[in-house]
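Thread: NAP complex, take 2
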Amino acid sequence: MKITFCCTDTKSEPWLKGLAAALPGADISVWQAGAPQADYAVVWAPPQQFLDEQPDLKALFNIGAGVDALLKLRLPPTAAVVRLDDAGMAVQMAEYVCHAVIRHFREFDAYDESMHAGQWAYRKPRLRTDFAVGVTGLGVLGTRVARALAQFEFPVNGWSRSPKALGGVRCYSGAEGFNDFLAASRVLVNLLPLTPETQDILNQGTLSRLQSGGYVINVARGAHLVDDDLIALLASGHLAGATLDVFRTEPLPAGHPFWQHPKITVTPHTSARTLRDETIAQIAGKIAALQRGEAVAGIVNPDRGY
Ligand code: NAP
Ligand code: GLV
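Output below.
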């Protein structure tokens, strides 16, 4: 069994070593132009040339959860695309989002200012019931995040394509449920996959439906958010702030207004990182299962886009 590794901006040696240890007997190498056909590929943002030269792959294992970049390419016709299925990402996403929500709700930035001014200054406690959090996308990550927020007793709303039932979460679905979901939410956490249907979904029209004093946390993809619309809604006061981990162009270009905006917190696409050991174990387990002819979780539907 041949496995080829083609991950942009990723140091290959530890991955190859880990995969070799997890799949003894497999022939594993870093892809180079002209390399022989492999059975399986481990990929992140591969070049089109790689896919064109590997037309008979059985499966492509993406070392991230989001497959939007991969699905933009011309894929080998019979290769299954397999996403990373949690592998330690969901708990990271839950801690990042809960931190951002609680920091905003408990006004920790204002306490920071008081501390730097040497002031012992209480703030009036705010009501959790006034800070309903809406999570767009109730998949692997969104479900974990919604449950974690519910543990802190925030009212939690969730929105997905198909109807769902999740304890502690008021669930909405489909285009017909979107406006009601937005109107019921003050804080918006975006965990949708980037697809033609969800691109630009956080815009003037949708964000202005959030409750007044709304707050946006975008941890999915930058192209979900219309940057200028966010800035306009912050200026109008309808939105109180935003925490953004993902951007249309990454790294976020120098001079982009988000960098210096007093109501925006920027982090460098780090809310849920790929953890190498967990990822190798998951991919190796799935390759072994496919070799035995068994089904695996996390197969992407290219027509749906996730
Ligand atoms: P997932 O398991 O595929 O779940 C996607 C969810 O979105 C599902 O609930 C799905 O609905 C819903 N959805 C998709 N299209 C929709 C639409 N048009 N309308 C309403 N709901 C829709 O994805 P995931 O693993 O939770 O990850 C979500 C995204 O997070 C990834 O695609 C990636 O872009 C991003 N991500 C970011 C980081 C980071 O570090 N910032 C790390 C990992 C992932 P159904 O349940 O009905 O199918
Ligand atoms: C990271 O953004 C991922 O999709 O895993």
